[in-house]
């Protein structure tokens, strides 16, 4: 794709009219670039990076702490971590408020009971996969638009 000399300031996917800014192409470019119009103020809920992670055991909780510090070190945006409460150790649940206060992040523990109508899994790893995949729509509040899943040992 090459722009014509008299069209350098126009968007490639725009037809040149302002009325098309809410169409399919504009929504597609917003999806790829992550932004809207330059003059639109960002909403406050978009100013937080939501990260969901699951730790099942003391080793993965240690990896989780390392991952959290790495995220905090590499971003200036406020971060909110979401953890599956069902598999966290009591020591981690006791430690996380102190860590949040020291490093200045938010956190929330979410849990969901396996539904009786769904075949109960007996293997721990399959249960965790169920929580990571099947129940994402009921684990988080509706106000959370986007959430990143980061594996503890990533």
UniProtKB/TrEMBL annotation:
Transmembrane segments: none annotated. It holds the Pfam family Glyco_transf_24. Residues 1-20 are annotated as: Disordered. Residues 1-10 have a biased composition (Basic and acidic residues). It catalyses: N(4)-(alpha-D-Man-(1->2)-alpha-D-Man-(1->2)-alpha-D-Man-(1->3)-[alpha-D-Man-(1->2)-alpha-D-Man-(1->3)-[alpha-D-Man-(1->2)-alpha-D-Man-(1->6)]-alpha-D-Man-(1->6)]-beta-D-Man-(1->4)-beta-D-GlcNAc-(1->4)-beta-D-GlcNAc)-L-asparaginyl-[protein] (N-glucan mannose isomer 9A1,2,3B1,2,3) + UDP-alpha-D-glucose = N(4)-(alpha-D-Glc-(1->3)-alpha-D-Man-(1->2)-alpha-D-Man-(1->2)-alpha-D-Man-(1->3)-[alpha-D-Man-(1->2)-alpha-D-Man-(1->3)-[alpha-D-Man-(1->2)-alpha-D-Man-(1->6)]-alpha-D-Man-(1->6)]-beta-D-Man-(1->4)-beta-D-GlcNAc-(1->4)-beta-D-GlcNAc)-L-asparaginyl-[protein] + UDP + H(+). Its cofactor is Ca(2+). Residues 49-154 form the Glucosyltransferase 24 catalytic domain. Recognizes glycoproteins with minor folding defects. Reglucosylates single N-glycans near the misfolded part of the protein, thus providing quality control for protein folding in the endoplasmic reticulum. Reglucosylated proteins are recognized by calreticulin for recycling to the endoplasmic reticulum and refolding or degradation. This is UDP-glucose:glycoprotein glucosyltransferase 1. It comes from Ilyodon furcidens. The gene is UGGT1_3.
């Amino acid at each position: 794709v090459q722009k014509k000399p008299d069209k350098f300031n126009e968007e490639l996917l725009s037809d040149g009219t302002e009325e098309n800014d809410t169409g399919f192409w504009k929504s597609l470019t917003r999806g790829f670039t992550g932004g809207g119009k330059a003059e639109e103020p960002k909403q406050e809920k978009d100013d937080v990076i939501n990260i969901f992670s699951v730790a099942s055991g003391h080793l993965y909780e240690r990896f989780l702490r390392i991952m959290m510090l790495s995220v905090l070190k590499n971003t200036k945006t406020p971060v909110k971590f979401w953890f599956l409460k069902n598999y966290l150790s009591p020591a981690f649940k006791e430690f996380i408020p102190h860590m949040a206060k020291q490093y200045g992040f938010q956190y929330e523990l979410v849990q969901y009971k396996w539904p009786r109508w769904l075949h109960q899994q007996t293997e721990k790893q399959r249960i965790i996969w169920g929580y990571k995949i099947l129940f994402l729509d009921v684990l988080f509040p509706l106000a959370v638009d986007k959430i990143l899943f980061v594996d503890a040992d990533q």
